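During the second half of the funding period, the structural biology subgroup turned its attention to how the target accommodates small molecules. The most pressing case was adenosine-5'-diphosphate, which had performed well in the primary screen but for which no bound structure existed. We therefore specified the complex as follows and requested a full 3D prediction, including the ligand pose.
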Amino acid sequence: TSAPDPSSPTHELVVVANRLPVDSHTLPDGATEWVTSPGGLVTAMESVMRTVDSGAWVGWAGAPGEPPAPFEADGMSLYPVRLDQQDVERYYEGFSNATLWPLYHDVIVDPEFHRTWWDAYLGANRRFAEAAAPVTAPGGTVWVHDYQLQLVPLMIREKRTDVRIGFFNHIPFPSVELFSQLPKRNSILRGLLGADLLGFQRESDSLNFVAAVRKLLGYHVEGMTISVPGLGAAPVREVEVRTFPISIDSAAVSALAEDPQIRERAVQLRHDLGDPEKVVLGVDRLDYTKGIRHRLKAWGELLDDGLIDPHDTVMIQVATPSRERVDAYKQLRDEVELTVGRINGEHAPLGRPAVSYQHHSFDRRDMTALYMAADVVLVTALRDGMNLVAKEYVASRPDLRGVLVLSEFAGAADELRAAVLVNPHDIDELKSAILRALAMPAEEQEEAMRSLRHQVMENDVQNWAHDFLERLEQTGRLEGSSAPV
Ligand code: ADP
Ligand code: F6P
């Protein structure tokens, strides 16, 4: 059993996620450098955990092989989990990112299924559960995150019947028709149902999950509460499903946008681009779900059609490196870089780009300066759990200027109704939306931005975490909830 060792520290709140908030990188001289991990999960949870007393985070440090020893950072205890090269290939790049990721994002690329990948997923999930169970205080809370760890809730429940277990899925949950394609689908559902509370981004995700449980497992569902057969004394355990749209540390981002040095940096950025009249920005992990190809196609056609003048208008595309050994990501990078090269070759004025392409990370201050320098931000995801970039842009504009073009397929579209909403699959519609955004008068920008800011500033990530944990506290103590499944 993994009950806490009385001589070791335990924690009231233990977060379990595939990645730690920091990645270890080995420098040429052999020293270790820690850098912030990519993605929305870390952006959101890092700011939540900063406000928690003696919390813990269990996750992978981003490199295969011997993990670093547990260490403290930002008042939090970090417990690195070991993943060997084969785990990285089969659990992380394979089942997580070449099976689940495309399937859960509506098969934008074909998911691959391999039994060896499933075995690795099972083994890696077990390792995360084994790392989390002994460091959780008696009666404490474990909060498991995202699609890489869907078996962990049940695995922890089997070890620790005294703890509350929450799970939050940061990405979409697909329709039952698509989910049904997944080999081992019932094991995934049972794994998730080891939690007391399951959180999803959009109402449609919660409904899809409940429909899958009803259809594939035949469990009784009342409203959004699922009766899960138990063992022994408690024949039934109730699991609640709810929607919690994730957010950002809105006040912190807004405060950065008021920092005079960052404002100056935004002015400088525009100057470096040749002081164009308009700057259009895209910020994404280089992922096929983000619709970068569609965005560049629309942009290229607007230049070809003469509807955008590259002397007046510049596009910046920040495309953070991501999952670079997975085939679909390699192919995407090649295509994006070829297209950017073509657009620049045909349209860039001498000495400056039509599309400024940035394939690297920026720190938070530079990212805020970029948002402040942008007249228009394009979020054209084909499918996205939430999309925090959309919310970061809004929080970065206390001046009430700028236009957000937002895909209706991003979770953020449920809340950010005052954005220019688009179907990115319709290139003509996307082109019109871009032109409309570029031409939007200042008063109209202000009106929309005021409404968007109201939404983002009121509903920040601290509220999101508070709502989830409060609900978990209520659900996790229902009668019979401590029985193993
Ligand atoms: P995902 O979780 O799929 O990556 P989100 O839009 O929800 O997508 O979150 C992306 C997060 O990563 C945001 O906080 C964004 O600011 C950050 N980010 C994206 N690109 C970069 C970059 N090049 N440098 C630093 N942070 C980045
Ligand atoms: O929810 C989005 C997400 O997949 C997170 O789980 C993940 O940390 C982030 O995007 C970045 O992806 P990766 O960890 O594979 O680099």
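Two results from this model are relevant to the next phase. The CA atoms of residues 78 and 409 lie 34 Å apart. The chain has 16 helices and 18 strands.
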